[in-house]
Design brief:
The protein is of the alpha/beta class. The protein has two domains: 239 residues, P-loop containing nucleotide triphosphate hydrolases (Rossmann fold, 3-Layer(aba) Sandwich), CATH 3.40.50; 43 residues, no CATH class. It has eleven helices and ten strands. The strands form two sheets. The protein has a six-stranded mixed β-sheet, with helices on both faces. Strands 2-1-4-5 form a four-stranded antiparallel β-sheet, with helices on one face. Strand 9 and strand 10 form a beta hairpin. Helix 3 crosses helix 4. It is globular. The relative contact order is 0.14. Bound molecules: adenosine-5'-diphosphate (ADP) and magnesium ion (MG). The site of magnesium ion (MG) has 3 residues, from helix 1.
């Protein structure tokens, strides 16, 4: 499959900082993948994300996104259309006083004709499940709804890649669930490539692949099952594992025989039920 992201040995140092924030990061991502990026604070996740749409340019190495070298100034507009970015705080991303005008904002800047803007705004609002709020004022909406409006503003530009930097960090559990459901649907149904930076292990567990960053480097790049089977390593770099994985890990430490690759609540319930029923047979 074609790579939408191809980053080779990315190095980046903020001006005035002695230590580089990225110390040689190489990652490629295929079209249609949904990839989580984990790592404790300061590990370089946001710095890496900002390289994907040229908010930052590498001081070493090279970054291609959708076939465009992000350092190619002539292609900046194309790049920004290819890779859309959603940030943590929805309030900082909303510019207009009516929802549909906010979603249209980026398109107007691109010089898209009015009929097409109308069509794209409606379709983006439907994609995030916010069409019926199109005439509302954004400030009256919940955090989760506002974040979905911010996502609609990005997908109205029809990017191939959407990068979300901790989009659920400021949301309550319900808003968090709405946003994750929306992102998952964009990936599964519309085939959009998704890079999701998150602190929530359950969100990462639901992705196709997880990248773990540590101290400006890529530490692990694997499937959620493989990544979360490294409980000790993850804990060493300051990360948690999903609750289900944690329970199984602690039980195994007590000598109870359970599988290594449990990451969802359902899998945990099933493994425990099967263990208990086996035990019942032995006793009977
Ligand atoms: N604007 C900045 N100026 C100087 N240093 C920065 C800036 N932004 C981030 N850093 C530093 O770069 C490193 C990586 O930060 P960041 O990419 O924000 O990590 P993360 O998103 O994983 O928390 C950290 O050491 C951080 O302190
Ligand atoms: Mg960050």
């Amino acid at each position: 499959m074609e790579n939408i992201i191809n980053a080779q040995q990315l190095v980046f140092a903020y001006s005035g900082e002695k230590e580089a924030a990225l110390k040689g990061v190489s990652v490629s991502v295929s079209k249609g993948e949904m990839v989580a990026v984990l790592g404790h604070n300061g590990s370089g996740k946001s710095t890496f994300a900002k390289h994907l749409n040229a908010i930052l340019l590498p001081s070493g190495g090279v970054c291609y996104v959708g076939g465009i070298n992000t350092a190619d100034e002539d292609k900046l507009l194309d790049l920004r259309r290819t890779a859309g970015m959603v940030f943590q705080n929805p309030d900082n991303q909303i510019v207009a006083t009516i929802v549909e005008e906010d979603v249209a904002f980026g398109l107007e800047n691109l010089g898209i004709p009015p009929e097409e803007i109308r069509e794209r705004v409606d379709s983006a609002l439907k994609d995030v499940g916010m069409y019926k709020f199109r005439l509302h004022a954004p400030h009256q909406l919940s955090g989760g709804q506002k974040q979905r409006i911010a996502i609609a503003g990005i997908i109205a530009m029809r990017p191939q890649l959407i990068i979300l930097d901790e989009p659920t960090a400021m949301l309550d559990p319900r808003g968090r669930a709405e946003v994750i459901e929306t992102i998952t649907r964009l990936n599964r149904e519309l085939g959009m490539t998704v890079i999701l930076i998150t602190h929530y292990m359950d969100e990462a567990a639901a992705c196709d692949r997880i990248i773990v960053m540590d101290d400006g480097r890529l530490l692990i790049d694997d499937t959620p099952k493989k990544v979360f089977s490294n409980v000790a390593l993850l804990k060493r770099v300051g990360l948690d594992v999903p609750q289900a994985t944690e329970i199984v890990y602690e039980l195994k430490k007590c000598g109870i025989d359970l599988p290594d690759d449990i990451i969802t609540d359902e899998e945990c319930v099933e493994a425990l039920a099967s263990l208990l029923s086996k035990k019942g047979e032995v006793q009977a």
